[in-house]
Design a protein that fits this description.
mainly alpha
Amino acid sequence: MFAYFIAGAVSGICLASFFLGKELYRISKKNDVQKKEIERLMVLYHKIKASWSYEER
């Protein structure tokens, strides 16, 4: 009886760890994509700002 409890607890912990890791990986990838998008927007912003500075002269 005690062995069944231990087996269930271990399998439950493994399953929970799997889903937790899966969710953390998804959040990590989403964060990386957002970071790259922000970097691209900053480059575009600086290019637009530079072109406006050039036109004002």
